[in-house]
Design goal:
The chain is an alpha/beta fold and about 475 residues long. The protein has helices at about 15-25, 45-50, 55-70, 90-110, 170-175, 190-205, 225-235, 330-340, 370-375, 390-395, 425-435, 440-445, 455-465; strands at about 5-10, 30-35, 115-120, 120-125, 130-135, 140-150, 155, 170, 185-190, 205-210, 240, 245-250, 255-260, 265-270, 275, 280, 315, 355-360, 365-370, 380-385, 405-410, 415-420. It is globular and about 75 Å long. The structure holds flavin-adenine dinucleotide and nicotinamide-adenine-dinucleotide.
Length: about 475
């Protein structure tokens, strides 16, 4: 007899596992089906984010950041370090432990909340049934649900010009596992993954060349911030080539010969490792039986409304497999919303204020609209900026690159967007998100007291600058 549930979730990444926990908290009998196998070939929860995404990449960014600091910035503080050595195997083992501890934590949360974890591949069948094929490919279980939440996540896009080759031409997962620092590393795609993982290996000693197809850099970011970022990354030694279209890759005895074209003609670069980081696509192939009639768009994303309802009754979809940014926190918020909707509550996601962060150094973070979007929409706005170079705390830290930019509606003064480049701005952006979520004006931020000396004061000053009242920089007249 089939097992009966109020909710069956397919996928245990940050969208699915959070949805499952919230459903269970709300008293719904919940199961979660997941097919992920860890490095030891054992089933593990957490999906892309915990296993090969957010967490391991941030562990390596943290470790490589410390290596870079000790080699390059300690001397400025009067600290001389000698005999500094890199133990890459230990760095990797630390990363694996961080991942292991966190995925075990999700397992504990499932147990504590009474969630049944079904290990294997899930498929939505008609009449809200879910088929689970176990990892051995043999045994099949059928689950019956009153509601199904699809959270299958996404996978790296592959390109014909650079087919993956184990340990040589790799996707982001392979780039988290190099056993030695490449001498010369190529990266196809100067997006979020290219910049973060390119930074890790540059800090550890690789020469890094990024080949980006677009003529513009970080198109989703505010143009002023992206321009500043490009300048700073180039200064660090990241060799970012824009408008570069990779045509082919050939592996020979000297390494990988990457042929590419740009507006100046044909070029070739020889590297010893190559990362392909050109975006991600939803894992929706074979997720639902044809008879279900689940509607997908042309990219394979599951079609959903603003409450993540699919075209099928009682079937919801969340996370990377639906429209919107492919971000862990976006998927998690959708998971909470859907659980609450299923439980009969009113719930929504504030899609307009989802923060984006790029964990390079300096970090880049933003929420709300960009200046170019305001211009394109013909919105009358005011802008205030404040450089970290004028922040006492940033100066004391010896880390004063970047700035804060606040965009406010010229009529209502409501904060429409905040864009930051600078150290720790992944944390600072939360203040802007809270302000925007509360419908704050730039004057509200200007009237708020910020502790001195903190980096947060730069947000205060940028808000004051909207009205030409910043204290620690000369204000623009008019
Ligand atoms: P996933 O995390 O992909 O999880 C989906 C799960 O469903 C997986 O376990 C998968 O195996 C399982 N599954 C799929 N189909 C089936 C099926 N049919 N049956 C059973 N199980 C199935 N985002 C951030 O917000 N911050 C970051 O710093 C960040 N860093 C990243 C770094 C890297 C290198 C990468 C690759 C991504 C990063 N992301 C980051 C993006 C983030 O990982 C994703 O947005 C997030 O994991 C999406 O969550 P999800 O639950 O939708 O899907
Ligand atoms: P991305 O969309 O950020 O960047 C891909 C880049 O590759 C783009 O700039 C694109 O123009 C370029 N590109 C595409 N095809 C190309 C080609 N053939 N040759 C050269 N360049 C090409 O995608 P990503 O970096 O792969 O990341 C995937 C997703 O994972 C993103 O949506 C991101 O939201 C998420 N992610 C988030 C974080 C974070 O939040 N810090 C970190 C990593 C990944």
């Amino acid at each position: 007899m089939a097992k009966q549930y109020d909710v069956v979730v397919i996928g245990a990444g940050p969208a699915g596992y959070v949805a499952a926990i919230r459903c269970a908290q709300l008293g719904l009998k919940t199961a979660c089906v997941d097919q992920w196998l860890g490095a030891d070939n054992q089933p593990v929860l957490g999906g892309t984010c915990l296993n090969v995404g957010c967490i391991p990449s941030k562990a390596l960014l943290e470790s490589s950041g410390r290596f870079e600091e000790i080699n390059h910035t300690f001397a400025d503080h009067g600290i001389t370090a000698s005999g500094v050595q890199l133990d890459l195997a230990k760095m990797m083992a630390r990363k694996a432990k961080v991942v292991g501890d966190l995925t075990q934590g999700i397992k504990g949360l499932f147990k504590a909340n009474g969630i049944d974890w079904h290990q294997g591949r899930g498929k939505l069948l008609p009449k809200l049934q879910v088929q689970v094929i176990a990892h051995d490919g043999q045994s099949e279980t059928i689950l019956e649900a009153k509601n199904v939440i699809l959270a299958p996540g996404s996978s790296s896009v592959e390109i014909g010009a650079a087919p993956l080759q184990d340990g040589v031409i790799v996707d982001s997962s392979g780039a988290l596992e190099f056993s030695e620092v490449p001498k010369r590393l190529g990266v196809i795609g100067a997006g979020v993954i290219g910049l973060e993982l390119g930074s890790v290996w540059r800090r550890l000693g690789a020469e890094v060349v990024l080949l980006e197809a677009q003529e513009s850099f970080l198109g989703a970011a505010d143009e002023q911030i992206a321009k500043d970022a490009l300048r700073q990354f180039k200064r660090q030694g990241l060799d970012i080539r824009l408008g570069a279209r990779v045509v082919s890759c050939e592996t020979g005895k000297d390494g990988i010969v990457v042929q590419y074209q740009d507006s100046k003609g044909d070029h070739s670069e020889t590297v010893d490792k190559l990362i392909v980081a050109v975006g991600r696509r939803p894992n929706t192939e074979g997720l639902a039986a044809d008879e279900v009639g689940l509607l997908l768009d042309e990219w394979g994303l599951i079609h959903v409304d603003e409450h993540c309802r699919t075209n099928q009754p009682s079937v919801y979809a969340i996370g990377d497999a639906v429209r919107g940014p492919m971000l862990a926190h976006k998927g998690s918020e959708e998971g909470v919303m859907v659980a609450e909707v299923i439980a009969g509550q009113k719930a929504e996601v504030s899609y307009d204020t989802i923060p984006s962060v790029i964990y390079t150094h300096p970090e880049i973070a933003w929420a709300g609209v960009t200046e170019q979007a305001l211009k394109a929409a013909g919105t009358d706005y005011r802008v205030g900026t404040f450089p970290f170079a004028a922040s006492g705390r940033a100066r004391a830290a010896g880390d004063s690159a970047g700035m804060v930019k606040v965009l406010a509606d010229a009529t209502t003064d409501r904060v429409l967007g905040v864009h930051i480049i600078g150290a720790h701005c992944s944390e600072l952006i939360a203040q802007a998100v809270i302000a925007m979520e509360m419908g704050a004006s730039s004057e509200d931020l200007a009237l708020t007291i910020f502790a001195h000396p903190t980096l947060s004061e730069a947000l205060h000053e940028a808000a004051l600058a909207v009205d030409g009242r910043a204290i620690h920089i000369p204000n623009k007249k008019g």
